[in-house]
Amino acid sequence: MIIRFLNSMLRATSTIYLLIVFSLCFHSCNNDNASIEQLPTAHLNQNKGLHELSTIPIGGAISINKVLADEKLKDITIKNFSSISATNDMKMYSILRDSTYSFEKVDKLLAFCEEHDKRLFGHTLLWHYGLPQWIQDEASKNGAASVDKFMKDYISKVVTKYKGKVVAWDVVNEGFETSGGDYRKTFWYNQLGAAYVEKAFRYAHEADPDAVLFYNDFNLERDTAKLNGVLKMISELKEKDVPIHGLGFQMHLRMDIPDSTIAYCLKKAADTGLQIHFSELDIIFNKHNDSKDGGEQQYTELTEEMKLQQAEKYKNLVLMYRNIVPLDQQYGITFWDFNDRDTWIKPFFNINDWPTIFDENLDPKPAYHGFADGLKSKSPKTKI
Ligand code: 9MR
Q: What is the CATH number that goes with domain 2-376?
């Protein structure tokens, strides 16, 4: 009887909680909201880049060689972003192609960030994708202890080299299965068990005690089982005083993911008290199954109406971030690739799409203006 009563209380409490979160989001998304027809705004000050409109760090992921070789790309990067991530230049397969370390691209990237006063965000120390074969061969010869030693050496060497320069790191990237709440059975997991995550954070912290250390993954804004699995891992790490400071929501979004779902997930993440980074934002129109060549070409052209809908989605997203994530946890919003010419989405899912804020000619889309409107809009929790 008592249990039934407690259960129904629990159900009622969760429903009320959900209603509060949804109405908060609905309010925030409609607060100071332009109708679709009003976007893009004519009043946008074209001389101001996105980061100048914002108290939130605004990031762009780049390939340094591509940016240095392309004046227009370089200009929009410098103008719009206060934070820079490397799409690939800081990955293990780039730094450690064979058994010798190569820091040339990272050094170039750092010089670019220093010259233009940008924050350099480190993406990423450990990932299952693109792991050099020779590392796997060594492991099968020498066993788990050698993997632990290799992992420690790699993290210590890279983080120490950029101590005080790279201010934050995605220490572990995509450590959970594509869907559901289980650890991904990666090379690292198979060799060292779930403890590899704890070890990686400790090694990174030892190398640079001031660096902000993130766990980063995708679909956390839509797959609640995955989010719950990650949050459980985070609370276990915190119980053991593991130095984890931030959670990266990659935010490879789809137009059909409801804002209410995103708001619900974001609130749960913000409740951890961790820094929250939208680390790889883009918004695809077409569907996909999260795997290579897994796109489904539903839309063959980008209509004016679709452009405006995307603008509104980008605007709502930034309003949601500003309203739900407390100011002192807003680590930033980073766009992945950020233009429809270079986006990873098309080759990866093998479809045509228009997921970013700049078009194929690197000109701002309505999505850009929608996002800027979200940054500029008056909101009780922001300083703007
Ligand atoms: O955009 C990146 C693409 O150029 C690379 O070929 C690929 C493999 O290194 O990685 C892409 O970036 C991924 C990021 O590092 C982690 N989250 C998913 C991103 C898109 O696949």
A: 3.20.20.80
